[in-house]
Specification:
Layout: E1 4-15, H1 22-37, E2 47-50, H2 56-60, H3 62-70, E3 77-80, H4 86-99, E4 105-113, H5 131-138, H6 143-158, H7 162-176, H8 190-195, E5 198-200, E6 203-204, E7 213-222, H9 223-229, E8 234-242, H10 258-263, H11 271-281, E9 290-292, H12 298-307, H13 316-321, H14 338-342, H15 349-362, E10 375-381, E11 387-393
Parallel strand pairs: 2-3, 2-4, 9-10
Antiparallel strand pairs: 1-7, 1-8, 4-7, 5-6, 8-11, 10-11
Helix pairs in contact: 1-3, 7-12
């Protein structure tokens, strides 16, 4: 397969924008990416777009809605849906188009305007066959609830403390405060986090991400084209997807199974994507200079630090306490400020992480800059064990 590069990236800042449409956000991000890449809309040969599931038919055809405003050029457009791994799946789709030699230049874009509060069911029915109804409405097991269950299990096994959970938010808020694209741009103190309301014991309000509106886009091209246009191309070393292994304790509840729980590996939902990415890149966790992880809750950052191989199981708290994962530390985690500083915009979130990778590798992250960054990893995961891993290098 051909080598593929990221030529340009663009992002509409995260937040809540009641006066805009999801297409408005996508157009803004796309125009920024095109400008950054130094190409025109008419140069794009194919588009991969993450869908907006709450937008009815226009949302399901988000890429076509975007093209209708940008100017329809007749190019192939695919609309991607893969839970919270949608954006990473979109990136991989565009990457493969070029790696396989089908196209030379493509656009990957995600645009999302999440509803207020928790995600509503989409097209479900309130009966025994609707898992959303059973899991969320009857059992009350929303995402924070089962995150809390897994977090409590970690506390029991490894001695994780509430103070350490709060430290994750404090650390990431420092980076988010200096990121102009973040929604929550202020530093949180340890006391503020520990005094925030308990949502699902042991997770507090400031330790769980919000939902947000946002859009991110990037122009991908063959390495040959990238070298003609820039002296510092950003190489896509790996772009992989994975799903859960048999026995994983994933979000496929409420079909609770004692057997599944007894056989459950230690949170291996992303293990396949991560392992495949390292193999594809010819790299290992020891080669990483920084990572963007899905800190949807403070618990997530701890466990995903271990899943991507920064440390052994149960050691993420030590890295946190010693400042290893802070900006200025040996291996900064979430130098963008993370999902906790952005709020999750599902169809765009992993692409936002990749934007951060590109800016860091170019040396364009300002006060958030990781010195001498050469290799970065961005990880996402979603319902049913969907996961995506992307590794970029200079």
């Amino acid at each position: 397969m051909r080598e593929v590069a990221v030529l340009g990236v663009g992002m509409h800042p995260w937040g809540k924008f009641p006066g805009k449409s999801f297409v408005d956000l996508g157009v803004d991000a796309t125009l920024r990416a095109l400008k950054d890449a130094g190409v025109e809309w008419t140069d794009i040969q194919a588009v991969a777009c993450g869908i907006w599931p709450w937008g009815g038919m226009p949302g399901q055809l988000a890429g076509h809605e975007l093209a209708a405003v940008m100017g329809e050029t007749g190019v192939p457009i695919i609309n991607v849906s893969n839970a919270c791994a949608t954006a990473g799946s979109t990136f991989r789709a565009a990457h493969q188009m070029i790696a396989l030699g089908v196209y030379d230049i493509a656009l990957a874009v995600g645009l999302d305007m999440s509803p207020e509060g928790f995600f509503p069911a989409v097209g479900g029915t309130e009966d025994i066959n609707d898992r959303d109804f059973l899991r969320w409405r009857m059992a009350g097991v929303s995402n924070p609830a089962f995150w809390a269950l897994e977090c409590r299990r970690r506390m029991e096994e490894y001695g994780t403390t509430e103070t350490q959970l709060a430290k994750v938010k404090v650390k990431n808020s420092k980076a988010g405060a200096i990121n102009p694209n973040a929604r929550y741009r202020r530093k949180f103190s340890l006391e503020e986090v520990l005094l925030s309301p308990m949502v699902c014991d042991p997770l507090r309000l400031f330790e769980i991400c919000a939902t947000s509106d946002g859009a991110a886009a990037m122009v991908l091209c063959s390495m040959d084209i990238a070298k003609q246009r820039t002296s510092k191309p950003i190489r896509i070393a790996a772009a992989t997807l994975g799903s859960s292994l048999f026995g994983d304790a994933t979000t496929r509840i409420p079909f609770l199974s004692g057997r599944a729980q007894a056989l459950a590996p230690k949170l291996s939902e992303s293990a396949v994507a991560v392992k495949t990415a390292y193999e594809q890149a010819g790299l290992g966790p020891e080669d990483l200079d920084f990572v963007e992880l899905p800190d949807n809750s403070s618990w997530h950052e701890l466990v995903y630090s271990e899943i991507v191989g920064l440390c052994k199981p149960g050691e993420a708290e030590r890295l946190l306490d010693e400042g290893v994962t802070e900006l200025g530390g040996k291996i900064p985690v979430c130098p963008s400020g993370g999902v906790s500083s952005f709020g999750e915009a599902v169809a765009a979130q992993h692409l936002a992480m990749v934007c951060e990778l590109v800016w860091q590798l170019r040396g364009e992250s300002g006060a958030r800059q990781v010195p001498n960054a050469r290799v970065g990893l961005a990880q996402s995961y979603g319902a049913q064990g969907n996961s995506a891993t992307i590794i970029l290098t200079t």
